[in-house]
Design brief:
- The complex is a heterodimer of chains A (428) and B (317).
- Chain A is an alpha/beta fold and 428 residues long.
- Chain A has 13 helices and 18 strands.
- In chain A, 31% of the residues lie in helices and 22% in strands.
- In chain A, β17 and β18 form a beta hairpin.
- In chain A, α2 packs parallel to α3, α4 crosses α7 and α8 packs parallel to α10.
- The longest helix of chain A is centred in the middle third of the chain and has 18 residues.
- Chain B has two domains: 140 residues, 3-Layer(aba) Sandwich (Rossmann fold), CATH 3.40.50.1370; 152 residues, Rossmann fold, CATH 3.40.50.
- Chain B is 37% helix and 14% strand.
- Chain B has eleven helices and nine strands.
- In chain B, β1, α2 and β2 form a beta-alpha-beta unit.
- The longest helix of chain B has 22 residues.
- The mean pLDDT of chain B is 92.
- The chains are: A alpha/beta (428), B alpha/beta (317).
- The interface between A and B is medium-sized, with 21 and 24 residues.
Chain lengths: 428, 317
């Protein structure tokens, strides 16, 4: 187990994201894993001091979209390496996608994930159970038993349920257990064998395109089915401007829909694929600058609720190959914070939006209580330094995979300290 | 023979990467090579001791033969490696296969692959020169160069010339290489084809785009027809070959819309009666076989330029 956060005085941090406290500069004293004292001028003789001047002291970020690869593909990631990445990235909870082998369509797999999280004690691993048996869109998965075992929501990962009738029944059934449904909308037939956004760049590179319409047609369908089923829908990653409009309209109509966007789609466009950068082949394809701007605006105005780092570990066998044969996805947990700092630094997102989209809204979507900071409670928090320089490489990466688009590149913004339920899960 | 200093060419991945001076220098070099090909003894000692590996992970007869002949005429040693006989069919990855090949120390690898970007992938990871012999629907730069060579040989300076490219632009690497090359040499390119075969954003190449063949062909100096692949007939792109020929095929009547001196070109292999009528393919304006002949000279120029850039030619030692 990890060290209990004891006799630790965090000095000069800026509180961010706490439901019971406004943003302010504060010292926090931890004893025996608990918050022992809070205050602007707190000074404890003999305490081990963590200088957090200029850093954010948050309740920790929460990730909505991560592949754990355990069980079945532990060569690429397992729940230990995933949890270590999360802690090092300033995350205290990670929703784990059901696309394992076997898939998480049974309470046994759900229990495995929950038990591993408890044993590891590095962060919460919140299983998303399968919506349908083997993610095949044909028969309902046993959502009741998975709910009892700890599943927090249901979805078929990146496999769209092709049948609208099946999706309706699954959303209705999930409602019986008061659970939301997560989808990654795609008109699979229209997307065809596409490997990137269809547009100027796919034409130039000679790669098959996925038209934006293949996504927003399916976003509109999923929203319509959600309304019909009176369910609760979370769209895992939006990539196109039109999809943002659909979500905005649905919210205006009072439909229970939330949506997230991947950090890569906020930072980059399809133009970055000019050299066939295989780590930028993503399940949520990079689209055009107008889409990127619409996604940023959607976040700022609250249409888009959350930012995901879309952690998808793949080994060299899946990534050191031709672009159109590579698995889509990139690792992201450890580099979310510096990339968020980049967006803030560029003036594209403000601090409040980033906090809402990475701390508060993901909790609300997963049904976690709002985070509060009180004397006497077990400490769960993350101290995030927005100015420290580092890079993700062999010496710093904790993932079993290396498929990061920013591997070896200079990053600004580093996690100083993560405490999970009283124990230090990461100290930078 | 020496490579002009403009011709720094460590790899040839696409015509997109070359500027007009480099293209012109390669075409000038190809002209010298063509003269060699017309001698009784068609061989230069220039690349003696240089090993050229043809690594074809997609079927091709003429491009592979053309490269092998080009290498032999420069006295290079050649090895061929084809997908059907290779370990790729046994599940080995492209990178592992390429590293194994590299362990045999070739100086230049000529690669044909069905995935766009495969030559770039190898160029980043291998130490030898990489020449793209066609990657998916991306580029086929030596075909583009031999087309430019043939046009320049017949028409002189290409500035202001009208070139029509008709057919399946979406799936054509030949079209992309020609679009890049022709734009750099100042020609006006007009592409046409059924809208199902015209991908979005073609305007970025500086060309005009037409949904019907006639406006592209009208007044053209060159009419280049692209091959319609059999698997694309009768699916969601065109109803059938007959209808395609009726609306987009080059027959004598449609060719009359072009300039009287217009060249008829085709990268081969042709589907007679589909994209091109037999009498046009065999007609006086057709330069299709001269394209093939020029292909050898152009590939000699490319291999020589890459070898010379890497200090592998006889002069560089």
């Amino acid at each position: 187990m990890h060290t209990i956060a004891d006799n630790l005085l965090i000095v000069g941090a800026d509180l961010r994201g706490w439901a019971n406290l406004p943003p302010q500069t504060c010292n926090v004293f931890l004893v025996g894993g608990h918050v022992a004292a809070l205050g602007e001028h707190l000074d404890i003789a003999g305490a081990q001091v963590v200088d957090a001047t200029g850093c954010w002291l948050t309740p920790g970020m929460v990730e909505l979209c991560a592949a754990g690869r355990e069980p079945g593909q532990e060569q690429d990631e397992d729940l230990l390496s995933l949890s270590r990445c999360a802690a090092a990235g300033g995350y205290v909870a990670v929703a784990v996608a059901p696309d394992t082998q076997p898939s998480n369509d049974d309470h046994a797999v759900t229990e495995l994930i929950v038990r591993r999280a408890r044993d590891l004690g590095l962060c919460d691993l919140l299983p998303i159970g399968a919506l349908t048996h083997r993610l095949q869109g044909q028969t309902l998965a046993p959502m009741g038993e998975m709910s009892e075992a700890g599943a927090v929501a249901f979805g078929d990962a990146d496999r769209p349920v092709l049948s609208s009738r099946m999706l309706r029944r699954a959303m209705e059934y999930a409602r019986s257990f008061d659970k939301g449904v997560v989808t990654q909308p795609l008109d699979v037939d229209l997307a065809g064998a596409g490997v990137m956004h269809e547009g100027k760049w796919s034409t130039r590179l000679g790669l098959k395109g996925i038209p934006a319409a293949a996504e927003h047609i399916a976003v509109a369908r999923d929203i319509a089915v959600c309304q019909l089923a009176r369910g609760r829908l979370h769209v895992a990653r939006l990539t196109s401007a039109r999809s943002v409009q659909h979500v905005a309209n649905a919210k205006r109509d009072g439909i229970a829909v939330t949506a997230a966007v991947s950090i890569w789609n906020l930072l980059l466009t399809d133009a970055q694929l000019a050299k066939y950068e295989v780590n930028l082949r993503l399940a949520a394809p990079l689209r055009e600058e107008s889409d990127r701007q619409a996604l940023l605006q959607g976040l700022r105005d609250g249409t888009i609720d959350a930012i995901t780092c879309d952690h998808q570990p793949w080994g060299l066998a899946e990534k050191e190959v031709e672009f159109d044969r590579a698995q889509p996805g990139a690792i992201g947990l450890q580099t979310a914070w510096p990339l968020l700092c980049e967006l803030i630094g560029a003036g594209e997102l403000d601090e409040a939006t980033v906090v809402r989209a990475t701390v508060n809204m993901p909790r609300a979507i997963l049904g976690l209580p709002p985070p509060e900071l009180h004397d006497g409670q077990p400490a769960t928090l993350a101290v995030l330094d927005p100015t420290a320089h580092w890079q993700l490489d062999r010496s710093t990466s904790l993932s079993k995979s290396r498929n990061s688009p920013v591997w070896g590149k200079p990053l600004v913004g580093r996690v100083t300290l993560t405490v999970f339920e009283g124990r230090v899960s990461f100290a930078g | 023979m020496t490579a002009p200093s403009a011709l720094q060419l460590r790899h040839l991945l696409g015509l997109e990467d070359l500027n007009a001076d480099q293209i012109t220098a390669l075409l000038d070099l190809a002209a010298q090579m063509k003269a060699v090909n017309q001698r009784r003894i068609k061989k230069l000692p220039t690349l003696r001791g240089v090993t050229v590996l043809t690594f074809f992970v997609e079927n091709s007869t003429r491009t592979k033969m053309s490269f092998e002949l080009a290498a032999k005429r420069l006295s290079a040693d050649t090895m061929g490696f084809a997908a059907s006989t290779s370990s790729l069919s046994k599940g080995e990855t492209l990178l592992d296969t390429a590293r194994n090949l590299e362990a045999m120390a070739p100086d230049i690898v000529v690669i044909r692959h069905s995935s766009a970007g495969a030559p770039h992938f190898l160029a980043e990871r291998l130490n030898c020169g990489v020449v793209n012999a066609g990657d998916g629907a991306h580029e086929h730069p030596t075909q583009g160069l031999l087309d430019l060579y043939t046009m320049r040989e017949k028409l002189g300076d290409l500035t202001g010339k009208k070139v029509a490219i008709i057919g399946d632009i979406a799936h054509s690497r030949v079209a992309r290489s020609n679009l890049h090359g022709l734009a750099k040499l100042g020609a006006h390119v007009h592409v046409a084809g059924p809208a199902t075969m015209l991908p979005p954003g073609l305007e970025q190449f500086g060309c005009s785009v037409h949904a019907r063949a006639e406006p592209a062909i009208e007044g053209a100096d060159v009419v280049m027809m692209l091959r319609i692949q059999r698997e694309r007939q009768g699916n969601d792109l065109i109803p059938h070959a007959h209808e395609y020929h009726r609306f987009f095929g080059l027959d004598a009547a449609r060719l009359k819309l072009a300039q009287p001196h217009a060249l008829v070109m085709h990268p081969g292999p042709m589907n007679r009666g589909v994209e091109i009528a037999p009498e046009v393919a065999d007609g006086e304006q057709s330069v299709i076989l001269q394209q093939v002949e020029n292909g050898v000279a152009v590939r000699m120029a490319v291999l020589y330029a890459v070898a010379a850039t890497r200090g592998l030619d006889a002069v560089g030692g």
